[in-house]
Amino acid sequence: MDNRAPSYVGPLGNSADPALLERVEAADLVVAIGTRLDELTTSGYRLLRPPRPQQRLIHVHQGAAELGKVYQPDLGVVAGMPAFAAAAGALEPVAEAPWAAWTESARAAHLTWSTRPPSAAAQPKPPVTPRHPAAGTEAACDLDLAAVVAWLRERLPAGAIIAQGAGNYTGWVQRYYRFHELGTQLAPKGGTMGFGVPAAIAAKLAHPDRPVVAFAGDGCFLMTGQELATAAQHGLAIVVIVVNNRMYGTIRMHQELAHPGRVVGTDLRNPDFAQLARAFGARGEVVTRTAAFPEAFERAIAAGGPALLELRTDPEAITTTTTISELRTRAARRGKR
């Protein structure tokens, strides 16, 4: 669905707006079209409680076996999304929808949630030096990933394709980017790390005239980054953005939530990703400041072949809404109860 549509109020899953989750929980009717209503979509089966949700449920899916598999719908419809949309489009529109004000309120909340907070621009963070810097990463970094994604949202055309892997870094893309056309977001459904780079290569082969940008975490990139050799061999002008916070961020988050301060096996000692890209025959550049990103991106997209931008980010920024220190503080409060 075009994210510019007045009735689009945001995605579920990773980095969903807490206010949107509350709206789904409070809804009297949910029409779920084309989704399996899996663990991620339902926030661990909490938004809709199986087997009979508190909301009335109309579940539309092309596979009959999915209907009633987890949730028992009030009405199950076996149909693909195009066929269902065509049938729904033939219905008479509601002249004065009684839920119009609800929609407007939800839309306004989504626009607020997906807009970079002014405080992020007004209050620059102090530069952070890596605790265990790899070769060439000794420089401090002051990079606001929200600002980077917001800038790309304005810079890239509607048909640009964004590919990504799995990890907390994807939260910034999910929250601050806005998708307009079908097939412009390529992402795994099962938390598959390393998906972004090969997906971007496939997308560029299929759509050579469209900009293709891949987001990858540092751990994510290390799983399939060697596919830059394929991109270089075939002259595929993709831009890979490596978000380097020197750790497996999602696993680290869960460690801090369950066992604050007890970090096991999630710190990464990374290579210089820009140098690694150059070794494959791609353009490589390191970005440590928000203000330096736009010009670096323009150089990357004009390279005429594969290019990689390594964004060195603050490891404290574990999600779009919290830090590692805040997670530890919360855990400490729970321990005192």
Write the layout of secondary structure elements.
Layout: H1 18-26, E1 29-33, E2 56-61, E3 75-78, H2 81-89, H3 100-113, H4 118-122, H5 145-155, E4 161-164, H6 170-176, E5 185-186, H7 196-206, E6 212-217, H8 218-224, H9 228-233, E7 239-244, H10 249-258, H11 273-279, E8 283-287, H12 293-301, E9 307-312, H13 324-336
Parallel strand pairs: 1-2, 2-3, 4-5, 4-6, 6-7, 7-9, 8-9
Helix pairs in contact: 10-13
Description:
This protein is an alpha/beta fold. The chain has 2 domains: 18-113, no CATH class; 118-336, Rossmann fold (3-Layer(aba) Sandwich). It is built from 13 helices and 9 strands. It has helices at 18-26, 81-89, 100-113, 118-122, 145-155, 170-176, 196-206, 218-224, 228-233, 249-258, 273-279, 293-301, 324-336; strands at 29-33, 56-61, 75-78, 161-164, 185-186, 212-217, 239-244, 283-287, 307-312. The strands form 2 sheets. Strands 5-4-6-7-9-8 form a 6-stranded parallel β-sheet, with helices on both faces. It has a 3-stranded parallel β-sheet with strand order 1-2-3, with no helix packed on it. β8 (283-287), α12 and β9 (307-312) form a beta-alpha-beta unit. Residues 120-139 have low confidence and may be disordered.
